[in-house]
């Protein structure tokens, strides 16, 4: 699969190079007609300039990328821009412009919108951030994504943008919402125990092969609800990596024989429990 990553370096940014100009250059090359995966990295001063310039250029030049199937907006290291500082924009126009897209990955949630989040063929939606706002969760909950197979959301903490509650999150898993979903990731959360308890016997588990509750503050409290669930026992894979479970609880999981990832043990101190990715 052909893939290209475009980024504006610090020196380029100082010289006035823009992400739009890089997209325009790419669009004029023969390889653009066969490009299947495009990664947009740092668009230059991403902590103060949002992604709208990249979005506008990609929408305007959509006919130059007829084979585009995978799109990543905001792939940058913390040296380039901390995830909580990345300024996004409304990315919904990309879904309209690229009707054949199958995967969209977004990093950063500052100013992020997905309105409307409708697409007939999108199979994967991933949002990586330190705090996901309830308006974005609502857009996903209200979306028409009939082919969605993978939904991976970093929920984060309120200090960096998570302003939802458990009910806002649970609206995403209402029966019939995403009929083809097989991978659900509700991860990196400061309310991981609450999410685990609510999901333990949720009907959506019957259609999943993977439940990903990793990178959050999961403790024995949430794990107890999961390990007692017959629906959880039928999963092909359960990802609980980066957790605050006790050794006793981990031994109980090992005895089940289930495919459970319990790597990155963080200890059991209730006073110092933080998700893996915040700032």
Give a quick precis of the structure:
The protein has 279 residues and is an alpha/beta fold. The chain has helices spanning 10-14, 19-27, 52-60, 92-97, 134-141, 166-170, 192-199, 220-227, 230-233, 247-256, and strands spanning 3-6, 37-40, 70-73, 103-107, 124-128, 150-156, 183-189, 210-212, 237-239, 260-261. The protein is globular and about 60 Å long.
Q: H/E order of the elements? A: EHHEHEHEEHEHEHEHHEHE
Instruction: Write down how many β-strands occur, each being a DSSP E stretch of 2 or more residues.
Output: 10
CATH topology of the domain at 3-186: Leucine-rich repeat, LRR (right-handed beta-alpha superhelix)
- Look at the structure and name the CATH superfamily of the domain at 3-186: Ribonuclease Inhibitor
Distance from N terminus to C terminus (CA atoms, Å) equals 33 Å
- Structural class computed from helices and strand pairing: alpha/beta
Main sheet makeup: 10 strands, parallel
Strand content: 15-25%
The CATH level-2 architecture of the domain at 3-186 is identified as Alpha-Beta Horseshoe
Helix content: 25-40%
> Ranges with pLDDT <50 over ≥5 residues?
none
Total count of helical runs of at least 4 residues: 10
**What does the average pLDDT come to?**
96
Whole-number radius of gyration? 20 Å
Shape, please? globular
Strand order of the largest sheet: 1-2-3-4-5-6-7-8-9-10
**What is the CATH C level class of the domain at 3-186, in words?**
Alpha Beta
């Amino acid at each position: 699969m052909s893939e290209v990553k475009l980024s504006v370096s610090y020196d380029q940014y100082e010289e006035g190079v823009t992400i739009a100009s890089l997209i325009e250059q790419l669009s004029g090359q023969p390889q653009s007609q066969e490009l299947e995966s495009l990664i947009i990295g740092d668009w230059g001063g991403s902590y103060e300039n949002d992604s709208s310039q990249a979005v506008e250029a990609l929408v305007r030049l959509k006919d130059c990328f007829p084979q585009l199937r995978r799109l990543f907006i905001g792939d940058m290291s913390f040296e380039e821009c901390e995830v909580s500082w990345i300024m996004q924009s409304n990315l919904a126009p990309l879904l309209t412009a690229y009707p054949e897209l199958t995967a969209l990955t977004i990093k950063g949630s500052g100013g992020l919108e997905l309105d409307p989040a409708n697409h007939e063929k999108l199979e994967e939606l991933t949002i990586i951030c330190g705090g996901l706002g309830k308006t974005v969760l609502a857009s996903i909950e209200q979306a028409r994504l009939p082919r969605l197979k993978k939904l991976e959301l970093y929920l984060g903490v309120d200090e960096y943008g998570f302003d939802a509650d458990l009910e806002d999150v649970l609206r995403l898993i209402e029966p019939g919402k995403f009929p083809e979903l097989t991978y659900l990731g509700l991860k990196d959360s400061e309310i991981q125990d609450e999410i685990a308890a609510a999901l333990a016997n949720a009907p959506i588990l019957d259609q999943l092969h993977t439940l990903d509750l990793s990178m959050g503050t999961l403790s024995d409290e949430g794990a107890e609800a999961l390990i007692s669930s017959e629906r959880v026992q039928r999963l092909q894979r359960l990802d609980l990596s980066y957790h605050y479970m006790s050794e006793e609880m981990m031994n109980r999981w090992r005895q089940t024989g289930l495919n459970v990832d319990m790597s990155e043990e963080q200890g059991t101190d209730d006073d110092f429990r933080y998700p893996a990715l915040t700032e």
